[in-house]
């Protein structure tokens, strides 16, 4: 009997302990809610606790293996890869890895920074292998988890813990050991870069964005970031504030690289901004001009390492610069989505902070564009175009109407001429132009989809107004495209390469997908875009350069195509479309022709033609 009672008591105590553990798990690091943990009973709690204990054990084992990473045999290396890649998203694993890590005689925070630098450089032989890159990326993932809100050493409750604060301060200040010591950390730009490079997790990603590559290859600035870890807002903000404070208080912060191209690559802000772009909410809060001055600092006040020579660098080097990562971080902040992820369905309403960032970024280059059509930096063209595309309904109003007040959707107050010049500057990247053009094609078709068959058969002032505005928008865009191709031809650049990228099936070839709601809209867009593709092999001769506008009237044909497809979707016959007098033949088509030409002429005026 005593044995039975003891057994009952033992199981009761175990159940109590599991329940207590389960309750702690539910509210762990979530003082105001139950977090994301889901437990349905004691069995779930037992299983989850066992998994947590196993992950903690795996983290300690991984720490021992990472300490010897340069000397591991094949079996040990494979074991470490398995542990690191499978455990990186577990707080238990990440905490134990970080707090038990030892490298070159240093522990924890020092060891993380030393290990990151060693892995990134390829270790003893200086050769970065594919497995080295995987270990580096897994370490980045573990650091993101360890410094996140679900970790006791990270940012529980949205505030960085002492362990995380010490990691950041060590990167900034170093550890005070003499330079000859194998565990010495000097701090400053080099070690801050070690930390932010680890956050970026781009080691081993060699592909550089090339806007003139075949669209089927999907070359993009964010391809290198696919699958990379997402860092917490608290950690990103603390690292950003630390670097800004350090570089502001040090006149010689980037001594040696400040005035040459290496500065654009060795800037510790590069990795931070890359990581920031993967957390849109954090980016929006960090750059919100109504609550911080960070946006002003990056756009106006900061002395960018290598900034004086950046515009003279080859394009491929500009695409790997810190400013390129600023563009992606600002896109994330202004749109609320990760660069490369699908656009928001039209129409989209952005919050006040996103809109404020968008307007401020657009306003950065307006004055310079009056004197220099290419004032938008090479690496900023595609991110700015993606922002413009995400605000497509507002852009449609600005280019299609003479607005006397803010736009209806996001209350934008951007001058039509300024917007046209911004689009012109971004359009030197053909992928950038395609995004804006495709966005307006979707907005136009989405608007047409609201009208019933009778609107195409007899006068409907609202449909006439929409056709007028849409034709004007597409005319503006054709004016921009013609001007870019003309200038490329004048400069004896490869205008054919630009056209080849531009004329690839525009929706299918987009780097960033645009959601289309409904088959009718999809068919209308396709009908408009596929009926007037240019011969990719056509050469740009002198006559074409001098008469570029009349040779690039594609969007007029596109508007006819979208209009016709939507009318036939509504049941109109070919006879009804061609009937004269008739609404479609004598009014909708003539409005398209007139306002398309007006839009092109307006674009020419704003571009100073």
Basic shape: globular
**Integer average pLDDT:** 87
The main sheet orders its strands as 1-2
Number of strands: 2
Cα radius of gyration in angstroms: 29 Å
How far is the N terminus from the C terminus? Answer: 101 Å
- Main sheet: strands, sense, barrel: 2 strands, antiparallel
Helical coverage, percent range: 55-70%
How much of the sequence lies in strands comes to under 5%
Give the structural class: mainly alpha
Low-confidence stretches: 29-33, 504-508, 531-552
SSE layout:
Elements: H1 2-27, H2 42-67, H3 74-87, H4 91-100, E1 102-103, E2 106-107, H5 108-121, H6 130-146, H7 162-173, H8 188-200, H9 233-248, H10 262-266, H11 269-277, H12 280-287, H13 294-301, H14 315-318, H15 322-335, H16 352-363, H17 366-369, H18 381-390, H19 392-400, H20 416-426, H21 430-448, H22 453-457, H23 461-490, H24 495-503, H25 519-530, H26 542-546, H27 548-551, H28 554-569, H29 574-578, H30 583-606
Antiparallel strand pairs: 1-2
What would you say this structure looks like, in words?
The structure is a single chain. By secondary structure, the protein is mainly alpha-helical. Strands 1-2 form a two-stranded antiparallel sheet. It has 30 helices and two strands. The N and C termini lie far apart (101 Å). Among the domains are: 19-158, no CATH class; 429-609, no CATH class. 61% of the residues lie in helices and 1% in strands.
């Amino acid at each position: 009997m005593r044995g039975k009672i003891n057994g009952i008591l033992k199981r009761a105590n175990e159940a109590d302990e599991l329940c207590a553990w389960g309750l702690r798990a539910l509210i762990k690091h979530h003082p105001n809610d139950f977090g994301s943990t889901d437990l349905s009973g004691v069995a779930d709690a037992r299983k989850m606790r066992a998994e947590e204990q196993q992950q903690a054990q795996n983290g300690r084992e991984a720490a021992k293996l990472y300490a010897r990473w340069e000397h591991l045999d094949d079996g040990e290396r494979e074991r470490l890869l398995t542990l690191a890649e499978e455990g990186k998203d577990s707080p238990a694993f990440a905490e134990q890895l970080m707090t038990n890590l030892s490298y070159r005689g240093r522990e924890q925070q020092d060891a993380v920074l030393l290990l990151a630098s060693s892995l990134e450089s390829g270790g003893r032989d200086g050769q970065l292998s594919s497995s080295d890159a995987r270990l580096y990326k897994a370490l980045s993932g573990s650091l993101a988890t360890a410094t996140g809100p679900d970790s006791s050493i990270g940012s529980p409750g949205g505030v960085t813990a002492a362990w995380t604060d010490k990691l950041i301060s060590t990167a900034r200040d170093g550890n005070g050991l003499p330079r000859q010591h194998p565990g010495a950390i000097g701090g400053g730009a080099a070690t801050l870069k070690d930390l932010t490079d680890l956050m970026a997790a781009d080691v081993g990603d060699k592909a550089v964005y090339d806007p003139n590559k075949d669209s089927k290859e999907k070359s993009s600035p964010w391809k290198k970031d696919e699958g990379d870890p997402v860092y917490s807002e608290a950690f990103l903000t603390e690292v950003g504030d630390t670097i800004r404070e350090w570089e502001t208080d040090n006149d010689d912060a980037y001594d040696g690289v400040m005035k040459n191209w290496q500065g654009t690559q060795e800037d510790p802000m590069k990795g931070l901004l890359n990581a920031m772009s993967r957390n849109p909410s954090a980016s929006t809060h960090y750059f919100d001009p109504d609550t911080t001055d960070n946006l002003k600092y990056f756009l106006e006040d900061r002395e960018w390492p290598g900034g004086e020579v950046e515009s003279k660098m080859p394009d491929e080097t500009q695409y790997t610069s810190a400013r390129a990562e600023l563009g992606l971080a600002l896109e994330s902040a202004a749109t609320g989505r990760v660069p490369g992820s699908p656009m928001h369905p039209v129409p989209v309403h952005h919050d006040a902070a996103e809109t404020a960032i968008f307007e401020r970024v657009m306003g950065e280059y307006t004055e310079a564009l009056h004197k220099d059509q290419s004032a938008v930096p090479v690496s900023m063209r595609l991110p700015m175009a993606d922002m413009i595309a995400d605000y497509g309904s507002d852009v449609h109003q600005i280019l299609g109407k003479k607005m006397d007040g803010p736009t209806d959707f996001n209350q934008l107050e951007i001058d039509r001429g300024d917007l046209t010049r911004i689009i012109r500057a971004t359009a030197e990247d053909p992928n950038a132009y395609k995004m804006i053009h495709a966005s307006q094609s979707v907005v136009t078709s989405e608007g047409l989809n609201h009208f019933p068959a009778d609107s195409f058969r007899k006068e409907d002032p609202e449909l006439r107004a929409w056709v007028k505005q849409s034709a004007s928008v597409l005319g503006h865009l054709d004016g921009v495209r013609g001007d870019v191709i003309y200038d490329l031809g004048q400069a004896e650049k490869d205008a054919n390469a630009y056209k080849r990228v531009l004329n690839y099936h525009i929706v299918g070839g987009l780097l960033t997908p645009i959601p289309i709601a409904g088959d009718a809209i999809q068919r209308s867009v396709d009908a408009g875009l596929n009926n007037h593709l240019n011969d990719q092999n056509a050469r740009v001769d002198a006559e074409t350069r001098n008469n570029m506008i009349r040779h690039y009237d594609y969007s007029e044909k596109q508007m006819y195509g979208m209009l016709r497809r939507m009318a036939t979707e509504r049941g109109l016959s070919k006879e009804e479309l061609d009937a004269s007098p008739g609404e479609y033949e004598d009014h909708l088509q003539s409005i398209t022709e007139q306002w398309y030409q007006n839009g092109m002429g307006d674009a020419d005026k704003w571009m100073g033609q």
